[in-house]
What does this fold into?
Amino acid sequence: MSGHSNYEPKTGFERWLDVRLPIVRLAYDSVVDFPTPKNLNYWWTFGGILAFCLGIQIVTGVILAMHYVPHVDYAFASVERIMRDVNYGWLVRYMHANGASMFFVAVYVHIFRGLYYGSYKAPREVLWILGCVIYLLMMATAFMGYVLPWGQMSFHGAVVITNLFGALPVVGPSITTWLWGGFAVDDPTLNRFFSLHYLLPFMIAGVVILHIWALHVPGNNNPTGVNVKSKADTVPFHPYYTVKDGFAIAVFMLMFASFVFFNPNALGDAVNYVPANPLVTPAHIVPEWYFLPFYAILRAVPNKLAGVLGMFGAIAMLFVLPWLDTSKVRSMRYRPTAKLYFFIFVATCLVLGFCGGRLPDDHVIPKLTTFTLLDADLNSMVWLSRIAATYYFAYFLLILPILGLTETPLPQPESISEPVLSHSANAPAGAAASPEKRG
Amino acid sequence: MLRKGIALAALGLAIIATPAMAATTHAEPKDMHWSFEGPFGKFDQGQLQRGYKVYREVCSACHSMNLMSFRNLGQKGGPFYDEKYKNPNDNPYVKAIAKDYQVNDIDSETGDVVQRPGTSADKFPNPFPNEPAARASNGGALPPDLSDMAKARELGPRYIYSILTGYEDAGPNMTVPPGKHYNPYMPGDMGAFWKGSAATIPEGGFIAMPPPLVADKVTFDDGTKATLDQEAKDVVAFLVWASEPKMEERKSFGLAAMIYLLIFTGLLYVSYKRIWRNVSH
It folds into this structure.
């Protein structure tokens, strides 16, 4: 999509088409001839895996929509009819339900890869922000999709999440009524969620095109974080990365299939197989696993509005990250201190997810009751969430800005080929040059 | 530094493994096993037939199964599936079972409500005409629909088996309200009903359903001895089948899919190695 094109139309038809709509040229330049760093590791295959996930969700979703009935009286039964009476309906529905989880597994790996290798830094800020937009759209889509089977957790999850907007001052109650299409979560809510759940994936697909466009302007980042210097640093995307991504997608499909065929309900909540009943609240309302870290941040704050702001702030951090990290070195391979803080950050996100799945007053260490300060029980999930949430925000607002100014990075290689062609033991002296000369 | 990160992540996982404490408690379901477990597990057709008999003669007096039709009993993998009758509607067992029930219909000539014998296409009849009627007959409690029961509870099969076989007398320290029954596997908070010391509050809660199964409650057609354990195991198998009637199809399809994917993955790996063999990276 940028730079010089090496496409040469071979047939008469291609030449005819090329001067009218150079679509074959576009495809050739983007996915065949595109120069890609030759040192990308398996963490880079998750972009392709995510495209595969989006495709699966759209195809299975379109089929499910042929059989689904978006009405409070029929939604649950229509999903069960898909499972019981539609030919291979169980396959389509389990692929779609587990596909959502697989999509989030892949997107979290993809995001953490970007964080570790500094893929958000100049000149890839727009690429990164478009990725954050995709992530937000994914969360909205997944949330509304989970409401559609109209089980107990669907209904009560929808009540909890839509009520969050009620915490906003002045406009909150009006926004909530507007979201519901009435004065409670009911048939209009289900209908608009179904409509939007069908719309948003195509918006995701649109932003994915922008995301790939923004990728193809500066080209891929790579594990060294060092810019591509010459043609020796790259290989054409096809066949080198089509086959590598293809292999990774196949491995991912094995994992995906093991859930769909042998453990299809492991990632869901059993309570959602009970039809929605507004009069009976489940003992423990929890969102799907991929929302748990944000749910923990929400509950860590005693004030509802502050909790909502904290939850959205946690996502907002990602959007402004390119301007929070002051380090000129992209890859954390050459930032040993930052690397340590990064792995603590990953662990923090896992701890937040763990806390989000438990009751706030549950003990972290069972049967230990003496760990109290004034009237606060520090051995509780809510306090663990508070500590973890503090680190989450500190990582973005304190650690990354300060560390970039104070740390001494390790020497970076001169080019991508250099650490490959001559291993660090016999590296030329130039390799140890000061890092700030590169960006 | 990487090691420290891994150690922290391991600590996180260690914390996840610890059980939760809450006011609502229940006993850990009994460790039971069935033929349908695991990636190759299949239903035992004889057990499904016995389980259906328990459901029809005991459970169906109060519990509906709104998602089930008689034809389901004769479909592939079902309790009365017979290879001779690929179309379950033609299955003589299924027809005979359906005919035993009288279902409401509209007389197409007069428009009057009439009763006619059931057909394979009819749904399992609901024991009560509506929810208030169900509650009125059960001391205010609503017997839940059993169609999805085995997947609507954590550890479904083990949970149902434990409830059915787990009724016990908690002794004189417990005040059991009228119309209720103590069951340690039912989630609940017994604090308010316990006269003994706070440290010995029993796990579990009250359930409105009286103990539904006792030995010899049904007579199995295949001569299997109808112990409480046998009846409970069999009806659980039937309920698991009813929750996931396509489980066997899913697993056999899955086996083929996994073999296909493994070969496909292997071929891609070889291609990957071959294409990259001359690139130092």
